Amino acid sequence: MSKNTYYVTTPIYYVNDKPHLGHAYTTIACDVLARFKRLDGFDVKFLTGTDEHGLKVKQSAEKAGMTPQQFTDEVSVTFRDLVPLLQYTNDDFIRTTEERHKKACQALWTKLVETGDIYLSKYEGWYAVRDEAYYDEEELKDGPDGKKLAPTGAPVEWMVEESYFFKLSAWQDKLLKFYNENPHFVMPESRFNEVKSFVKGGLKDLSVSRTTFDWGVKVPGNGKHVMYVWIDALTNYLTAAGYPNDCSKYWPADLHMIGKDILRFHAVYWPAFLLAAGIAPPKRVFAHGWWTIEGEKMSKSLGNVIAPEDLVARYGVDASRYFLLREVPFGNDGDFSHSQAINRINNDLANGLGNLAQRTLSFIYKNCEAKIPAPSEYTQDDTILLTKAHNAIINVREQIDNQAFHKAFEAIWSVVNDANAYIDTQAPWSLKKTDTARMGTVLYVLCEVIRCLGILLQPVIPTAAGKLLDQLVIPANERSFVNIANHLKAGTVIAQPEGIFPRLEEKAAA
């Protein structure tokens, strides 16, 4: 197995509130990628964490009667608690209040001052506290009370303050050149087109410090300024890679996974900061869509926010992970409904994969002395199914590398469906009476296909896939993708099989 590296990051989540379905969605996608790459022989670094500075956090802390540090300590834990709940396998959890991060931010800032890309001036403009962003006049819309609103709907106020600026205006042509040389830097393609259009429209210098509050990383040499939240927050990816020390093992990052609402910061500002500092930008930024809940935007006022722990309590970890990545083409917006979740889980996991494994292994346990039978001569039907199962990794790998999770699972379930059709057609229960040698071959082929499926599905349904491989008595050191080319050992004694996915009742949606 090779030792190539793969560095994947979630956005760092803002700690002004507790995590919801959207946070879980992003991190599950990154976890599936990380697990897949590890099984494919890569040395993986998987990063997540929390963004803990800025005016909004300070105000939320004051409202809660706490210091900003006390508040962030408390809320950050709610994001860390998702790690065991949803079985994330992150290698690092970063907080922007950590000393290692402050050191990295100040080192990058100093570098940008040395290159002449940061300068001191004054800033005035329309500022949205909720978004931690300034907006141009033409971007604003009028609210129902006549007050100005940001494109996101956040209220804005006119602010004037001394500020350091990053010379973003000098990077328009350089960014467009970079985009042209890296045609897959942003995905999906439609999002990349949005980014290019924005940059072609002209770039203005970017305010990168604040003096109106002090909850942030201090600007080197001028302690009355704190770094603007985006230059602070974005640097976390470098911090975790080892910056300002040697970070070449994992940098540049292979993938920043983000929601579409923060694409501009990651695809315009971040590569400009890095290029100005002489640091390679990440290889790809993938901006996925948003989840609505049964046609409505998630909102505390509507009472429809789905907490990750509620999803797991209702459907289990594996089924929750699978549904979120299978139901909607990754990159598109999706609408969550409990009826859709139940249908998908029942059809794919209970009726499809679970039923295939249960009826195959139960038949072997009852009729073959609990031993995996030895195959005899393969027919064309056997060979076609075996070849498809062994070669599925090729298509799945391509789709995972393009973050097309739904297509990867379509490829896997094509094997599941073919295997279920095969067992119905071959009917080993009938062969038991007429041709036990043929029965043994059919059962061996089915077990071999289930072994391949178990290996392939470890990244998305790790517990269930592990149980499948346990029931086939596959050693832990034979579960990576390189082992798919192996074959089951005939005569292996199996324990009485247990179902891995119980069928859900519609009342579970109530």
Number of strands: 19
Global outline: elongated
Distance between the termini: 48 Å
CATH class of the domain at 337-509: Mainly Alpha
Structural class call reads: alpha/beta
Mean pLDDT: 94
Largest beta-sheet details: 7 strands, parallel
Radius of gyration: 26 Å
Q: Give the helix proportion (percent range).
A: 40-55%
Named CATH topology of the domain at 337-509: Isoleucyl-tRNA Synthetase, Domain 1
Give the uncertain stretches in residue-range form: none
> Architecture of the domain at 337-509, according to CATH?
Orthogonal Bundle
Number of helices: 18
Offer a quick outline of the entry.
By secondary structure, the protein is of the alpha/beta class.
3D structure, described in words:
The structure is a single chain. The protein is α/β, with parallel strands linked by helices. The chain has a domain at 337-509: Isoleucyl-tRNA Synthetase, Domain 1. It is 47% helix and 15% strand. It is built from 18 helices and 19 strands. The chain has helices spanning 21-39, 55-63, 68-80, 82-85, 99-114, 172-181, 189-200, 229-234, 236-241, 263-276, 308-315, 317-326, 338-367, 380-401, 405-426, 428-434, 436-456, 462-471; strands at 5-9, 13-14, 43-51, 92-95, 118-128, 133-135, 141-142, 148-149, 157-166, 186-187, 206-207, 209-210, 218-219, 222-227, 255-259, 285-288, 291-293, 296-297, 334-336. The strands form five sheets. Strands 1, 2, 3, 4, 10, 15 and 16 form a seven-stranded parallel sheet that branches. The protein has a four-stranded antiparallel sheet with strand order 6-5-9-11. Strands 12-14-13 form a three-stranded antiparallel sheet. It is elongated. The two termini are 48 Å apart. The mean pLDDT is 94.
